[in-house]
Structures are given as C-alpha cells and as structure tokens.
Amino acid sequence: MYILGINGSPRESGNTQAFLDMTLNRAAELGAETKSIWLGDKNIKGCRACYGCVQAKKCVYEDDFQPIFDEILKADAILLGSPTYHASMTADMKALLDRCGFCGRWASSPMKSTGESYQWAASVFSGKVVAPITVARRTGQVMAFAEMLIWAAANDCIIVGNSYWNMGVAGKGGAINAEEDAEGIGIMQGLADRIVNMVNKLNA
Questions:
Q1: Model pTM greater than 0.85?
Q2: Can you name the CATH fold of 2-203?
Q3: How do the pLDDT tens digits run along the chain, 204 residues long?
Q4: CB-based burial label for 73 (10 Å; 0-12, 13-18, 19+)
Q5: For the chain, what are the domain ranges?
Q6: Are residues 187 and 195 in contact, defined by beta-carbon separation less than 8 angstroms?
C-alpha cells in the first residue's frame, strides 16, 4: 500500500505539512508506505489547453509536473493538502490538479467531433482513494475542501469519509502550531485509519 501526500502550501514545513504528516505517520504505523511531495519548490504552470495530451496521452508541456503525475499514478491513496488564504486551495495545488484532470482524462478517452457525445472511459485515477486536508487560521476552509472533493469526484476516485471534516485550525499570527490543535490531530489519525482500511478492502 502506497499513500502519497501532496503539500500545496508555499511553506515547506508549515501547518499543512504538519497535518499531512500526522496522517502519513499514522498510516505508516499501520503498515503503509508513504511519501510527501511539496509543491512550493516545483515549477508547475497551469494547464495551457494546448490539447497536445489528446494525441500524446500525457501532458506534453515540460516542467516539474510529469514526475509528480507519475508518482500519483503509482499511489493507492492520495492526500491533497492545502492551506486556505482566500477561501480556496492554493494556486500551486490548482495548477497541479487542473493538469492532472485534463491530461488524465484524455489518456483514457478519445476526443469526439462536434455533434458527437462523450461516453467517458475510466480515468487514469479510477479507484484511487483520495482525501483533502485543509488548514486555516480560523475559517474559509469549506470552499477549498469542496474544490478538492469535486476534483476527486469528477476523476472517478474513491472519496474516503471521516468522522469530521479533515480540517486543521492553526496559524494565528503566522504561527506554525498545528500540534496545538488536539481535535485536528485526532481527525488526521482517524483519516489515516479509514484510508488504510479502505485500501486494504480494495486490495483484498
């Protein structure tokens, strides 16, 4: 079992990474192989809508996207972590997911001519377990949480539930203090339990 965490925060070791680590560390205790990728030092532009992926069956724009995309394809489960600064996921996470969704769809489906309707094939992400994790000082997380859920739903992923929203409260005054959110810690550990249980059932 391989669980990949993606940190969309511009801060490498901030609160988003802390909440991701809480989840990944618990999953590792339960036997999962885990890895974390930070987008903050990566060069990933937004989708250029060049449609090169329709024929190539992969994104043809060369930057740091492709190695991350390949890592996502290997994973059984993906944690999407983003802070919320203005009630949405970060630009880095948005760029990654737009590129993933666009080229991932054309990798498994042909483009239709005008007047033809689509009967979409399975996505390259079909059956992958996905869960968002959002962090905010106080509020504004719901939109970011929903954006990542909608991406997972539209890409045929399996969205794993939890006993509460996967949201951490931290960062007042710019502080890196995720460890003070006792409830958030429990939420992240519970999320890990459910992801590992789900992947085990899918692989049984």
A1: yes
A2: Rossmann fold (3.40.50)
A3: 999 999 999 999 999 999 999 999 999 999 999 999 999 999 999 999 999 999 999 999 999 999 999 999 999 999 999 999 999 999 999 999 999 999 998 888 778 777 878 777 788 999 999 999 999 999 889 999 999 999 999 999 999 999 999 999 999 999 999 999 999 999 999 999 999 999 999 999
A4: middle
A5: 2-203
A6: no
